[in-house]
Amino acid sequence: MSEFVTPYLLIQDALDPGDLEFLRSACKQYLFQEGIPCYVLINNLESPTFIKIKTSLEQRLGESLYYLNDFYIYTDSSFKTNWHMDTELFTFERAINAWILLSPDVVEDPLGFIDRINDGSERYFHSVRADGDKYVFGDYSTGKVTARSVESVEAESIHTPTTKLGDILLLNPKRFHRTNANVPKHALSLKFVLKGGSGFLSCSQVDPIFWPEVDIYNKLVKSTQTWEDVVDGIRRALKTETGRKGLSAGFYPEKFPLYRRMVASL
Ligand SMILES: O=C(O)CCC(=O)C(=O)O
Ligand SMILES: [Fe+2]
Prior knowledge:
- With 266 residues, the protein is α+β, with helices and mostly antiparallel strands.
- It has one domain (8-114, 157-263): Sandwich (Jelly Rolls).
- Helix content is 30%, strand content 24%.
- It has a five-stranded antiparallel β-sheet with strand order 1-11-3-13-2. A three-stranded antiparallel β-sheet has the order 9-5-12, with no helix packed on it. A three-stranded antiparallel β-sheet has the order 6-7-8.
- Helix 4 crosses helix 5 and helix 5 (227-238) packs across helix 6 (241-248).
- It is globular.
- It starts with 7 loop residues before the first strand and ends with a helix.
- 2-oxoglutaric acid binds at residues 73, 75, 81, 86, 97, 99, 111, 173, 177, 179, 187, 189.
């Protein structure tokens, strides 16, 4: 896979009810013990469910995948993610998310994508913000900006298919995406990085000043020999207060109390 032709790929019936129960209970236990919604599976990389997910994706994509992180997310009509790309791409050249629905049984059109942007290196941006009737896209490395009308972006946005328990919605987190559904939903999104042209790291790095994880990941990748060493380094960083804060900064920290409440109802 060089890049997806579409920004998502739905793999149906990849997981069974036992896998979903394992994932739900891992989310509950981790949020209860650690208080943060990310890296839920970092100490479960040998579990049959994790191996099943990774193997089915590797077979589908024909490439090796390297676990970076995961996060539990709860959204409803009052909290939805807005257009964004995932900040791991500020460090790594390539990544994919395996988005797994935990509840309810079925969700229509869970996520949306912006069409005709970040679909190749010639038009690649890191941020998007609404400015009146325009969306303004920004490149943090070069300062370049471009604008598109809100109306055309919304009208042309790409919708996702109905997704049910057991499916894996594979998505390219480099494409601007957001929550589309209003219905209350719980999901676990697993992030894997893939090797790029010159290893794992992106050649257009973003200044880590606002993104502590960019600095943590860069140092770890540069100072280690194998991906297992990188993951071990993340485990060590998660044991310190600064590391935990830095590594969980991108997952809507103001929503952690809501996540802790909602995961209990799973
Ligand atoms: O579940 C959602 O609504 C958002 C998911 C997301 O942004 C992601 O998987 O990166
Ligand atoms: Fe995202």
